[in-house]
Design goal:
The protein is about 75% helix and about 0% strand. It is mostly helical.
């Protein structure tokens, strides 16, 4: 069976799954991502915590600990380590750590509203990678919804009055890593192989030690451990909360990708980010209002809601041969 046929069968099975798990997994992912961004923003901006890398290490460590204890207690199941596992996972661990660290770095360098706008570019990248890697096709109304979101992002970004080049570079890298992470995760979570929990556990295991070494070599680890607020109970509580939310975000991303497409997971993230932008206007303290930015955000939300409506109606599954004139063509590799 070819890779294209396998991908098509997998997507047909996902489309045929009951609507409730698809909706609940999407809501779980949206809520986990929403609270994760808010807590990380508080740690990295309000407390001026100096190390997104150290925070990422804490989230990886929490993932390893929670899944290992759950496996010992037979709450979850995934295969024991053997020499085939790195081959099965590659290149996901490298993409995973790039996504994790670029996301934390970009959160600290941009205002919440601008961060959410630039994150929209993950969506067309995911669409493109699903076409190339998974051999999928999408109806034109789905593609139109995606590009409505992008149009709104361009309009909103055009009025950015707090330009930060370093922040823009980090968030665009984060877009690329997020798109690749979603598509390859969808490809790797076959229950006959590593499954959802195996992918999460071994991803974290493979990347936590190199990340710690990198943090030590740059002096980042020492700077984080000598941070002045470690005696502040509220800061420590939020740091632990961020580690737990990091695990929930990784788990909910895999779960949402399992029941839905990688593109749907990405659009749910976009809708969540727009919601954060609206909140940032009221309570974030770092939003610079302009009518152009506000109109752009509303166009983004309209495109996201239309995509959600079409997906729930069942129009986002890959187009069949009889629908090729209404579908985005597939690039053949």
């Amino acid at each position: 069976m070819s890779a294209d046929q396998a991908a098509a069968e997998e997507e047909d099975a996902a489309a045929a799954s009951p609507a409730l798990p698809r909706v609940l997994s999407a809501l779980f992912y949206g809520a986990s991502s929403f609270f994760n961004v808010l807590v990380n923003k508080a740690l990295l901006s309000a407390y001026s915590f100096p190390s997104p890398v150290f925070l990422g290490i804490g989230q990886m460590a929490a993932t390893i600990l929670i899944l290992y204890v759950s496996k010992l207690r037979k709450i979850v199941h995934f295969p024991d380590f053997d020499k085939s596992i790195p081959v099965k996972l590659f290149p996901l661990p490298l993409i995973y750590v790039g996504n994790h660290l670029s996301g934390l770095s970009s959160t600290s360098k941009l205002s919440l509203p601008m961060f959410t706008v630039l994150r929209k570019f993950t969506i067309p990248l995911t669409l493109l990678l699903e076409i190339i890697i998974l051999g999928k096709r999408y109806p034109l109304n789905i593609v139109g919804s995606v590009f409505t979101i992008i149009l709104g992002a361009f309009i909103a970004a055009g009025s950015d009055l707090s330009f930060n080049l370093e922040g823009y570079i980090f968030v665009l890298l984060n877009d690329i890593f997020t798109a690749a992470n979603g598509v390859y995760t969808k490809q790797k979570i076959d229950p006959k192989e590593l499954g959802k929990y195996g992918v999460l556990f071994y991803n974290a295991c493979f990347m936590v030690i190199p990340t710690v070494i990198f943090s030590f070599s740059t002096g980042d680890f020492q700077e984080a451990t000598h941070f002045q607020h470690w005696t502040n109970f509220l800061f420590v509580f939020q740091f632990i909360l961020s580690c737990l939310l990091g695990f929930l975000l990784m788990y909910s991303t895999v779960l949402c990708s399992h029941y839905n497409s990688a593109l749907t997971t990405t659009v749910i993230g976009a809708i969540k980010n727009i919601s954060i932008a609206y909140i940032g206007m009221l309570i974030g303290g770092d939003y610079i209002f302009s009518m152009l930015n506000f109109v752009g955000l509303n166009i983004c939300m309209a495109g996201g809601l239309r995509y959600s409506f079409l997906t729930l109606r069942g129009n986002s599954k890959p187009a069949q041969s009889g629908d090729e004139e209404n579908a985005l063509p597939v690039s053949k590799s």
